[in-house]
Structures are given as structure tokens and as C-alpha cells.
Design a protein that fits this description.
single chain; 97 residues; alpha+beta; Translation Initiation Factor IF3; four-stranded mixed beta sheet; 3 helices; 21% strand
């Protein structure tokens, strides 16, 4: 569980990042989940866009993805959300205490 200070730190890091995934009308498929899992292992922090054609809100998509992957929701704003999961092999982000 992230503290508010850690969440604020991660939001600051995500501010300069571009979204690398899009969720469309197909929703959160197993393929997207597996790709997100691999990307989180490499990057630890990912921004995802939910397209207007999707049959879910960005908050719903974020909740589903976080449950399936075991990631932490950092931010959900507009049509984007940011998730974080600590990498086992590629630890780059040092969270404040």
C-alpha cells in the first residue's frame, strides 16, 4: 500500500511520461494484462489511456488491471490512469518513506 507521500512522488514522475498502452472497446483482455505485466517489470511506472470507445470508465479499467496484476493505482484523471508495481529485477524507482 502506497502512502500519500509516495503516491505524490510517483505522480510527479508520471507527469513527464507518455501513455504507452491504450484500452479500447475490447476492454481489459488477457493479452493487454500480460503486456502490462511485462512493461511494469521493466519500467515500474506506466501510464495507460482508455479510449472513448471503451465500454468502461478509466477508473473501472484501472481497478481491473490492478487486481489482475497486483499493481498499485497511482492516479486516475481524465481518460488516463497511472499504475506502479515494484520490479523484482529492474528496481529503478526509490520511493520516499
Amino acid at each position: 500500500m502506497l502512502t500519500s507521500k509516495q503516491r505524490a512522488y510517483l505522480r510527479g514522475l508520471a507527469n513527464t511520461k507518455n501513455a504507452i498502452f491504450q484500452i479500447g472497446k475490447g476492454g481489459v483482455t488477457d493479452e493487454i494484462v500480460s503486456q502490462l505485466r511485462v512493461a511494469l517489470e521493466k519500467r515500474e511506472l506506466i501510464k495507460v489511456t482508455v479510449l472513448e470507445t471503451a465500454f468502461m470508465t478509466p477508473r473501472e479499467a484501472c481497478t481491473i488491471v490492478c487486481e489482475k496484476i497486483g499493481a498499485e493505482a497511482v492516479q486516475c484523471i481524465g481518460n488516463k490512469f497511472v499504475i506502479y508495481k515494484e520490479s523484482r529485477d529492474n528496481k529503478e524507482i526509490i520511493l520516499p518513506r
